[in-house]
Amino acid sequence: MTTPGQWWRPRQWWARVRSVRLTRRNGILAAASAVVVVALVTVLVVVATSGGLRKKLAGATATTPTPTPTHTKAAPARPKAPPPKPKPKPINPLTGEAPSSHSVVAVKIDDTGNGRPQRGIDKADIVYVEQAEGGLTRLLAVYNTTLPSVEPVRSTRAGDEALAMQFGPIDYVASGGSGGELAPLDRSTLRSDINDRGGPGFDRDPSRPIPFNLTADLAYAAAKLHGPKAKDIGLTWSAKIANSGSRPAYDINTMVGGTPVAFVWRNDVHRYARVIGGTVDHAADGARVTTPNVVVQFCSVTDYPQDVDTAGNPAKYTHTIGRGKVVVFRDGRRIDGTWKRSTRDDGTHLTDAHGKPLSLAPGGAWFILVATNAPLN
Question: Which pTM value belongs to this model?
Answer without folding.
Answer: 0.78
